[in-house]
């Protein structure tokens, strides 16, 4: 499964694990777009079988509750759920 890429300002790798039907996931995408950031995302509910199992294992590594959205920044920091303040803080490099 190749994540979908959104172009924008590169502040390091940003990976969003989301559900296509989740309102908080949509708000997270909108915020990342508003901030003009480059990021990748996977709508996990649109996957099937072993591919979905593999991605859910990645989600679990970052978020034991397996909740959405799960936002991984620079491969070392994770924000679980929609947290606008945390997203703005961790992605601003001013």
Describe what this molecule looks like in 3D.
With 94 residues, the chain is of the alpha+beta class. The chain has one domain: Glutaredoxin (3-Layer(aba) Sandwich), CATH 3.40.30. Helix content is 36%, strand content 22%. The chain contains 3 helices and 5 strands. It has a 5-stranded mixed sheet, with helices on one face.
Condensed summary:
By secondary structure, the chain is α+β, with helices and mostly antiparallel strands.
Number of helices: 3
Global structural class:
alpha+beta
Domain count: the total is 1
Q: Which CATH architecture is right?
A: 3-Layer(aba) Sandwich
Strand order of the largest sheet: 1-3-2-4-5
| Gap from first CA to last CA | 34 Å
Low-confidence stretches: none
Average pLDDT level: 95
The percent of residues in helical segments reads: 25-40%
Radius of gyration over all CA atoms, rounded: 12 Å
């Amino acid at each position: 499964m190749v994540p979908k890429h959104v172009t924008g300002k590169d502040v390091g790798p940003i990976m969003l694990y989301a559900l296509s039907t989740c309102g908080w996931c949509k708000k997270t995408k909108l915020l990342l777009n508003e901030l003009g950031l480059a990021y990748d995302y996977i709508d996990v509910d649109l996957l099937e079988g072993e591919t979905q199992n593999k991605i859910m294992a990645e989600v679990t590594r970052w978020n034991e509750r397996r909740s959405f959205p799960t936002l991984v920044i620079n491969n070392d920091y994770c924000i679980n759920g929609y947290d606008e303040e945390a997203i703005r803080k961790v992605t601003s490099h001013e």
